[in-house]
Amino acid sequence: MNSTKPLWIVIAAALLGLWLYTDFDLLPTPYELVLEPEREVRAPGSGTAFSVGDGVWMTARHVVNKCDGIGFIKSRKIVGIVDRVVHHETADLSLLFSEFSALPLAIAQADRDPQRHDQAFLIGYPAGKPRQFIASQIEYREIERQGVPGGGFPVIVWAERPDPAPGTVYSGMSGGPVISGAGYVVGVLVGADNALGRIIANVPATLRETMAEHRIGTGAARPVPDTLFADPSETGSQLRAANRVIEVYCHVE
């Protein structure tokens, strides 16, 4: 028995190290993390969008599919109308084109892609109310999406920090940006697990490829100021006041 004691000590130390390394999140992430399926029944709804170009906006596909009209909302009033929508073929991502515009957020280049434990700033309109918070990166993974040709696409799973209060919901944040500490967009929110405080976002490569495919220039795009994490509430207020992040509404006749 004594001869096996050192082995058990090594195993225990390894497990403790893994526990600490994963930031108390043992992998893999539970498979309850699923995306909302494509809308089968036409119904109104709202989510979040953000500016990526002159009159070009990015959001989650499931927020704006099967709509008779799409508008941008501020203070419960429609401030802009979407003229055209382009859906990504497989990922939960869409581009919105409108005469309504705002200073675009900058999409991260490959050398700025998030790494494990990196922190990010998430912002959106859960239940139609503005909210922002900090989250840490847990893992990259492939996720299935029902009703979309091609099935799965890559995502990053984030965890709200500190853990969310009981009863927290993320519905309505879909389409909102994930912004790195350097101020660049590294994802678009597409799903969540309310109980676990886990949020799913498109990987930055999907955003870059979409921008390139539709020849959307990034010359006017600006990263968010480096005070991002110092005062998240103020950062959120500034982004909303400048319409760089805004609530988007799906109208159904």
Secondary-structure blueprint of this entry?
Blueprint: H1 5-21, E1 45-53, E2 56-59, H2 61-64, E3 69-74, E4 77-87, E5 94-98, E6 119-124, E7 131-144, E8 152-161, E9 177-180, E10 185-193, E11 198-202, H3 204-213, H4 232-241, E12 245-251
Antiparallel strand pairs: 1-2, 1-12, 2-5, 3-4, 3-12, 4-5, 6-7, 6-9, 7-8, 8-11, 9-10, 10-11
Write a brief structural summary.
The protein has 253 residues and is α+β, with helices and mostly antiparallel strands.
Attribute tags:
alpha+beta; Thrombin, subunit H; six-stranded antiparallel β-barrel; 16% helix; 253 residues; 12 strands
Provide an overview of this structure.
By secondary structure, this protein is of the alpha+beta class. The chain has one domain (44-253): Thrombin, subunit H (Beta Barrel), CATH 2.40.10. 16% of the residues lie in helices and 36% in strands. It is built from 4 helices and 12 strands; from the N terminus they run H-E-E-H-E-E-E-E-E-E-E-E-E-H-H-E. The strands form 2 sheets. A 6-stranded antiparallel beta barrel has the order 1-2-5-4-3-12. The protein has a 6-stranded antiparallel barrel with strand order 6-7-8-11-10-9. Strand 1 (45-53) and strand 2 form a beta hairpin. The longest helix has 17 residues, at 5-21. The protein is globular, with a radius of gyration of 19 Å. The protein starts with a helix and ends with a strand. Mean pLDDT is 86; it is low at 18-31.
